[in-house]
């Protein structure tokens, strides 16, 4: 580290996901994803909201890219919709590919690095009808989809993420039931977990082969949502064991196969009744543990966990709230037990920037083969108010972002190799089972008019980027020009 506070080339960006912003859910050849179908299930989504229109990014993409440029973003992390690119997982859809091709061109023209995620939870519904991620064949279908996207965009996109937060699209979607496809089948959740790992490995290998053939620069990785599982009472063996189990199920079941080529023995033991090992074929772990160029880390909050019996007001499932929440695999243990008396966001999530620093330092210490890290998501939902001056003075979100950015800087000082930070999210958007009720954007969207207004947090983030870039340029030019 130098006195400009950030390592050279540190990347500043913002992130979104296709189903959360695009809208045009049945336009341009796109067919149902599991989220379109899930939104039709009564009471699955708060307020009966759907991703049908979202924030209309499909039609407003050039203006949205102009907004990114105005904010000074160096990179934009977006996802492609499988159901738009290969509706029903059939033949490639030229209109779908064309949308992403135009997006990439627009970004490059604005000098913004496209950072592409292939899967941010929106499986084509047709594949779900064939078993979805519980069906091993879906891993091969994903590899073929990845190849289609690479063939269309690989000449211009260098940074590829296979999966975003597979925990959510496997265990929460197939065992917890709170996310699409809304299944509550523990064994299907575990099958989805393993098959998504396999899909990651197959796609990574295929992309590497194509890039090598064409002598292209390729950076490929995966994004995990990682937590610190904190025992509610560190002196209580039941709480300590609950913390071990949550850490195992939510962190190590992802990190270890991907980075070490093994599944954690203690978790397999916990899951004995589900016969997890039977899902793992001979060469799978070798396929899964392909070297990756980066690990994306999404972190919003820690999880305070306890092994004490569930109280009467517990809510089933995995979504952290301000009430105790149970997990389908940990028996009576519950998480996000709200006893730490920390401030919380509108999601009921604790605000504790030190947790991000701890997490990054822990990863660095625990995984010697860890690739460079990028914070691919961090941010906060708050109940924004539009002031009389038309502005959104979202001081809590601004403070949240700045404090977490500081925590990243501290982790770097402690030795973590973190190379970038993407704030979640560029725009207010469709927050999955919460619908449009929870706003994470640094840019407000008026859902009636689709008007965009940069919030104070967005302005602060833009200043932060500008300062970091000025310092970097000054440093490159020599000490005389350093910012005061
Ligand atoms: O909106 C989501 C995103 O899609 C995945 N990570 C967490 C965000 C906030 O819940």
TrEMBL record:
Top EC class for this record: hydrolase
Name of the featured protein: Beta-glucosidase
One MF term in the entry's GO annotations: beta-glucosidase activity
E.C. code: 3.2.1.21
Family, as annotated: Belongs to the glycosyl hydrolase 1 family.
Record-linked InterPro entries: GH, Glyco_hydro_1, Glyco_hydro_1_AS, Glyco_hydro_1_beta-glucosidase
Protein species of origin: Leifsonia sp. NPDC080035
Catalytic activity as recorded in UniProt: Hydrolysis of terminal, non-reducing beta-D-glucosyl residues with release of beta-D-glucose
Keyword Thylakoid attached: no
Entry keyword S-adenosyl-L-methionine: no
A GO CC term assigned to this protein in UniProt: cytosol
Pfam families: Glyco_hydro_1 (PF00232)
Catalytic residues of the enzyme: 165, 377
Keywords noted in UniProt: Carbohydrate metabolism, Cellulose degradation, Glycosidase, Hydrolase, Polysaccharide degradation
GO biological process, one term: cellulose catabolic process
Sites where the protein binds substrate: 20, 120, 164, 300, 424, 431-432
């Amino acid at each position: 580290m130098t006195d400009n506070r950030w390592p050279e080339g540190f990347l500043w960006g913002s992130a979104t996901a296709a189903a959360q912003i695009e809208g045009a859910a049945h336009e341009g050849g796109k067919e149902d994803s599991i989220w379109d179908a899930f939104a039709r299930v009564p009471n699955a989504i708060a307020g009966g909201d759907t991703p049908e229109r979202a924030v209309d990014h499909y039609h407003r993409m050039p203006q949205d890219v102009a907004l990114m440029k105005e904010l000074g973003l160096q990179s934009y992390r977006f996802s492609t919709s499988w159901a738009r690119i290969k509706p029903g997982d059939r033949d490639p859809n030229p209109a779908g590919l064309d949308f992403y091709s135009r997006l990439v061109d627009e970004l490059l023209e604005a000098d913004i690095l496209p950072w592409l995620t292939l899967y941010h939870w929106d499986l084509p519904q047709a594949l779900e009808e064939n078993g979805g991620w519980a069906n091993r064949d879906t891993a091969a279908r994903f590899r073929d989809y990845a190849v289609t996207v690479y063939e269309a965009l690989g000449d211009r996109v260098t940074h590829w993420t296979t999966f975003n937060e597979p925990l959510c699209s496997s265990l929460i979607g197939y065992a917890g039931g709170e996310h699409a496809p809304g299944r509550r089948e523990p064994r299907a959740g575990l099958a989805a977990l393993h098959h998504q790992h396999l899909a990651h490995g197959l796609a990574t290998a295929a992309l590497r082969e194509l890039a090598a053939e064409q002598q292209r620069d390729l950076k490929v990785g995966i994004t995990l949502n990682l937590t610190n599982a904190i025992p509610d009472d560190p002196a209580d063996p039941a709480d300590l064991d609950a913390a071990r189990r949550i850490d195992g199920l939510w962190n190590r079941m992802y990190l270890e196969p991907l980075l070490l080529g093994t599944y954690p023995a203690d978790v397999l033991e916990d899951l004995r009744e589900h016969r997890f090992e039977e899902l793992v074929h001979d060469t799978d772990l070798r396929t899964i543990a392909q070297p990756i160029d980066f690990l994306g880390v999404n972190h919003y909050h820690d999880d305070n966990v306890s092994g004490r019996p569930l109280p009467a007001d517990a809510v089933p499932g995995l979504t952290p709230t301000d009430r105790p929440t149970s997990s389908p695999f940990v028996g009576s243990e519950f998480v996000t037990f709200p006893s730490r008396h920390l401030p919380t966001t509108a999601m009921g999530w604790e605000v504790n920037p030190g947790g991000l620093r701890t997490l990054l330092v822990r990863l660095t210490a625990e995984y010697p083969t860890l690739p460079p890290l990028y914070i691919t998501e961090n941010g906060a939902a708050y109940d924004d108010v539009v002031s009389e001056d038309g502005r959104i003075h979202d001081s809590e979100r601004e403070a949240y972002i700045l404090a977490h950015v500081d925590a990243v800087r501290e982790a770097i000082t402690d030795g973590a190799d973190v190379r970038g930070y993407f704030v979640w999210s560029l725009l207010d958007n469709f927050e999955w089972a919460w619908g449009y009720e929870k706003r994470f954007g640094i840019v407000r969207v008026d859902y009636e008019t689709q008007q965009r207004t940069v919030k104070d947090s967005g302005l602060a983030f833009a200043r932060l980027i500008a300062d970091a870039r000025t310092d970097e340029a000054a440093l490159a030019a020599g000490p005389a020009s350093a910012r005061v």
